[in-house]
Amino acid sequence: MKIFVLDTNVLLHNAGALKSFADNTVILPMSVIEELDKFKTQSNELGRNARAVIRELDRLRSKGSLQKGVETETKGIIKIVADTPEAQSPVLNGTVIDNRIIRVAYSLKKRNPDNKVIFVSKDINARIKSDALGIETRDFEKQKIDYEKRYEGVKTIPVPFKFMTDLMETGIKSSEEYNLMPNEFVIFQEESNKENAILCRHVYSEKKLVAIRDYKKEIFGISARSLEQRAAIELLIDPLVDLVTLTGEAGTGKTLLAIAAGLELTLKKKRFTKILVSRPIMPLGKDIGYLPGSKEEKLAHWMEPIYDNLEYLFSQNTFEVTHKVEQLFKNGVIVLEALTYIRGRSIPKQFVIIDEAQNLTPHEIKTIISRSGMGTKMILTGDPDQIDNPYLDASSNGLSYCIERLKKEKLHGHIRFKKSERSPLASIAASLL
């Protein structure tokens, strides 16, 4: 039997974590309960998770003593353990809550040599300290993907010259031998000349690859600078694809293409009533009330990258830039929204862009996507290699998790950009610095 000692951040990250350890014993140090109590009044995602865990513990308490241990539906045991004198460690200051939690794991390890004691935390520093004391230490692995084997949405396949000439002539190729996902793309690249390449889209319902002929297709005055960008445009304008995820390093054009598609489909094609844009200022649900000014004024600072892209797009269309952008906001064609206000809403017939989505948890991404009403298209952009959330990484963030879980769905399309298109200098900085 294994004994898992949980850090508070595991429960705040995923309220269902208590049920994730099968028939083993889960230990919650008293300090974890104290921390949950501090979070329970918050109106954000952390507060909701804290309340959910507390309710679950109260339900278990009605079945027996949490001090002695209560059996769960999975035949495991959940116990609450108080700090004890034997848990003292000369290298851990007991005034620090994280240290008190680790000391419980340390004490259990000394008292249970026959059982495996494992400390579980989303906090890297806590894991380092625990490991330094000789305690087996893990991250919370549920809702993590194998990032090294991540789905990219585009495959590059070298082929002989004869294959290229036949494909250029017919424009169609059977997809059955390539093991492709719905809406996945293939770049067939001539073996002897890599500059000679053909982009094809997988038509899943017909089990065939169809060559894309128009590489210079424009959306709101801009065209693709790479085959990956052209594939992204295909997904962004497709009315049958309701969710598009775009990843890549800075300068690859993720946000620019998403906004351009939104303007094209809202202003010109009239397919959507408005464009709703948001990005995580901080963890989902964090209030913006501490900042001065109206909601729009508070958000303006965090939305500067959106304004930059809008000004660039309108300058390409020879409009009077500043006035036109201001009019779009004034008329409600483009709406900036804090993620905290999306919960509980139904968003119909809108083009929704969530920028920097790599800083959201899987549950937060689920909350956002589940707001989609009839006729809404949702775009998630971000770089899983650049995460500001201290409890997430490239494998556990909501954007990576969403891409992996939805890659087989025909309503979803994904493209990973590999080359910066912002400028030669930006490209060099992204790759070498």
Architecture per CATH nomenclature, i.e. the level-2 architecture of the largest domain: 3-Layer(aba) Sandwich
Strand order of the largest sheet: 3-4-2-1-5-6
Distance between the termini: 47 Å
* Number of H/I helices: 14
Q: What's the structural domain tally?
A: 2
Describe this entry's structure for a reader.
It is a single chain. With 433 residues, the chain is of the alpha/beta class. The chain is built from 14 helices and 19 strands. The model is unreliable at 282-288 (pLDDT under 50). It has helices at residues 8-13, 30-39, 45-61, 97-111, 124-132, 161-170, 227-237, 254-268, 295-300, 304-316, 321-330, 362-369, 398-406, 424-432, and strands at 2-6, 25-29, 70-71, 77-81, 116-120, 136-138, 154-159, 172-174, 185-190, 193-203, 208-211, 218-219, 222-223, 243-247, 274-278, 334-336, 350-354, 377-382, 412-416. It is globular and about 75 Å long. Helix 8 crosses helix 10 and helix 12 packs across helix 13 (398-406). The protein starts with a strand and ends with a helix. The longest helix has 17 residues, at 45-61.
What's the short story on this structure?
The protein is an alpha/beta fold. It has two domains: 2-138, 5'-nuclease (Rossmann fold); 228-432, P-loop containing nucleotide triphosphate hydrolases (Rossmann fold, 3-Layer(aba) Sandwich), CATH 3.40.50.
